Predict the structure.
Amino acid sequence: MSTGTLERIAPPAYAQVDEEREVSLKQEIRSLASERQAIILAHNYQLPEVQDVADFVGDSLGLALEAQRDPRQTIVFCGVHFMAESAKILNPGKRVLLPSLAAGCSLSDSITADSLEDWKQRYPGRAVVTYVNSSAEVKAQSDICCTSANAVSVIRSLSQRKILFTPDRNLGRWVARQVPEKDIVIYDGCCPTHDVLRGSDVGAGKRERPDAVVIAHPECREDVLALADEICSTTGMHAAVARHPEAKTFLIATEWGLVHQLKKRFPDKTFIVADGCIGCRLHCPYMKMNDLEAVLRCVREDRFEIRVDPAVASRARIALERMMAVPRDR
Ligand code: 13P
């Protein structure tokens, strides 16, 4: 467990620019975005400087809702591919741009349309609930999607008792514990960024800072979640911190980018990011592909535009829209 705040932890390997260049990149991005009437959306795990140029920073659900709500016709999506793809599916008439096509997701790649088909044949007659960290093709074969912010409510909203949950096994197991009345078969995928964290790491952090409140993302393993005081989506972590006004220190069991917004909103608190292994805080390399240079190229040159096969998109849209009608868990 790191004992420092965000600044005191060694930065991971990604292109960093000097301060002067950062200021000019940010100015250029903001002025081009307003000239082109583009909205910049950023996920909570994006690089801090990318979050700073965004119009809106949020979790997967918040970003999908904002992409629908905002009238601007161009969306610069600073997140990973499946998030930009969901925005395109929900807004077929808008132009959705992803600054780096290398911004993938291992969890999303852990399930394909073929492997889902195989699981559906193995477990016939079950309602298929698919986490949004999945491709359009997989969503198209699902009954409803969910995010970490609404997974429990989504499952409760279904009339079926028998469910096939894909692809994240840690989120699936956590949800299954919240809804014991449902019979849930869980696919075997995981997010390596979260799955690397062990209960023993969090336990060591707790021994160092016994007063700390532990907040974990439900993509963490069961032994980590067992030690958490709060389990929630990335944006849900803001409300979780607010629920502990007396606490000074928080151990955050999720990707380190999340702490940037928390520190802005709660400057008097200390946030310690969990270590996945020997002194290395949880880090998603894909989320960090959209650096400021890539965002500038994106707004300046309209690249990279996300396209989804219309037949796949129209089926995936049903699963996403069903999810959007369900409220957040809390
Ligand atoms: P949130 O929906 O909680 O932001 O999580 C997205 C994600 O990809 C976590 O790894």
Remarks:
- Residues 44, 59-60, 133, 147-149, 191, 217, 219, 233-234 surround 1,3-dihydroxyacetonephosphate (CB under 6 Å).
